[in-house]
Amino acid sequence: MSLVKIISVCIFSLMITACKTAAPDPETLPKDIAERPADADSRKYDQAQLDILKSAIDAEIAKEKCTDPKDWAFSPIGAKACGGPYSYIAYPKKNEESILAKIENFKNRMIDHNKKYNLTSDCMLPAEPVSIRCEGGKAVLVYP
Question: How far, in Å, are 1, 19, 53 from residue 5 at the CA level?
């Protein structure tokens, strides 16, 4: 065999060998969410999902500048473990349908979270705002 043929065969063999990939180790693959145990890591994950939902609500609200309080409304938000909201949030009336749907979803997910992890909370209801005022382009809840 000529030197060129030997080098060609070697290079071809290396290329084929290099293209083969080993099967991934099943232990290093991500686990299906249904297989994840309900432990502290799962609770952190679930809490992070709630935080993402709340951030989406806040982001949608933040898109609107408050110039006239009459264009804004408020809603209870979240759910305490023993019932009732944990707070109130102001939102622009023009996006009411979208925002209230997200607030309702957030509340329901929080209720499920509280039940899943058998959480407790104080049973005091937050004060309900009486109105809204605009400060620096942001809606601020006014309490009695």
Answer: 6, 21, 63
